[in-house]
Amino acid sequence: MEMPSRLIEDAVNEISKLPGIGKKTALRLVLHLIRQNKDATLSLAETLIKMRQEIKYCKNCHNFSDQEICNICLSPRRDPSIICVVQDSRDVMAIENTGQYQGHYHVLGGIISPVEGIGPDTLEIDSLLDRVKSGVVKEIIFALSTTMEGDTTTFYITKKIGNPNIRITSIARGIPLGGELEYTDEITLGRSIIARTNYDMN
After folding, report:
1. Which of the ends of the chain has fewer CB neighbours closer than 10 A, N or C?
2. What is the distance between the alpha carbons of residues 31 and 114, in angstroms, rounded to a whole number?
3. Alpha-carbon distance 93 to 82, whole Å?
4. Is 30 exposed, middle or buried (0-12, 13-18, 19+ CB in 10 A)?
5. What's the CATH code, domain 6-54?
6. Rounded to 5 degrees, what are φ and ψ at 154?
7. Comparing C-alpha atoms, which of 137, 62, 128, 143 is closest to residue 96?
8. In sequence order, what are the residues at sequence separation of 6 or more whose Cβ sits closer than 8 angstroms to the Cβ of residue 19?
9. Close Cβ partners of 101 (under 8 Å, ≥ 6 residues apart)
10. Cα dihedral across residues 7, 10, 15, 16: positive or negative
11. Least confident piece of the model among 23-37, 114-128, 162-176
12. How many Cα atoms are found within 13 Å in the side-chain-facing hemisphere of 186?
């Protein structure tokens, strides 16, 4: 694609690195930014820089946060005795949008996948076990993708918890096998949280 300016070409190349954005879409976005008031474009750039420099991970649940402990973990309206274990922050957002869950979360940062070189040691599993050992937790809800990797991760963590006094559940399988929470509609996801079932290691 022939570009009239090296500056435009560089911007297109950078934006096209974003997921789901090809060169044509990137060019359309770049041209849109050029047509905008310069202050609007600078504001966007400054916002992105600030986000990247200042975003934190909650020390408690590892969700994205503006501060050391996220708003969900700090909220007195949330039940800390219930922890919903998810793969990443997008899943937290998806479940929060249902309005059906009032417990806490734990973001693993991925799921066990030997093919991709992701083992238990690269995930936030030890910190989850520490939270369980605190004595506050009564139930762990696994809301991981319904894939072999997701099931393997659930099985591994359940074995590690090894506490018969902790109720282990998983969201109801109204979510299609192989499906991602991010793309599941809010009604189905909300009902899956409400109709969660006890996790059977067999």
Report:
1. C
2. 42
3. 17
4. buried
5. 1.10.8.420
6. -60, -45
7. 143
8. none
9. 84, 95, 193
10. positive
11. 162-176
12. 8
Q: What pTM was estimated for this model as a whole?
A: 0.78
Write down the domain spans for the chain.
6-54, 76-198
Helices (H), the chain: 6-15, 23-35, 38-54, 71-74, 89-96, 126-133, 148-161, 186-194
8 Å CB contact between 201 and 159: yes
Q: Which two tokens stand for residue 79?
A: 């039940």
In what helix (H) or strand (E) does residue 142 lie, and over which residues does it extend? strand 139-142
Q: pLDDT tens-digit profile of 151-167?
A: 899 999 999 998 888 99
Q: What pLDDT, on a 0 to 100 scale, did the predictor assign at position 189?
A: 74
Residues 31-44: tens digit of each pLDDT = 999 999 999 999 99
Cβ neighbors of 191 (< 8 A, separation 6 or more) are: 100, 172, 174
Tokens 């202050």 identify what position? 39
- From CA 186, how far away is CA 96, in angstroms rounded? 9
pLDDT of residue 190: 74
If one looks up domain 76-198 in CATH, what number appears?
3.40.1360.10
Q: If you average pLDDT over residues 78-103, what whole number do you get?
A: 94
- For 28, the 3-state DSSP assignment is helix
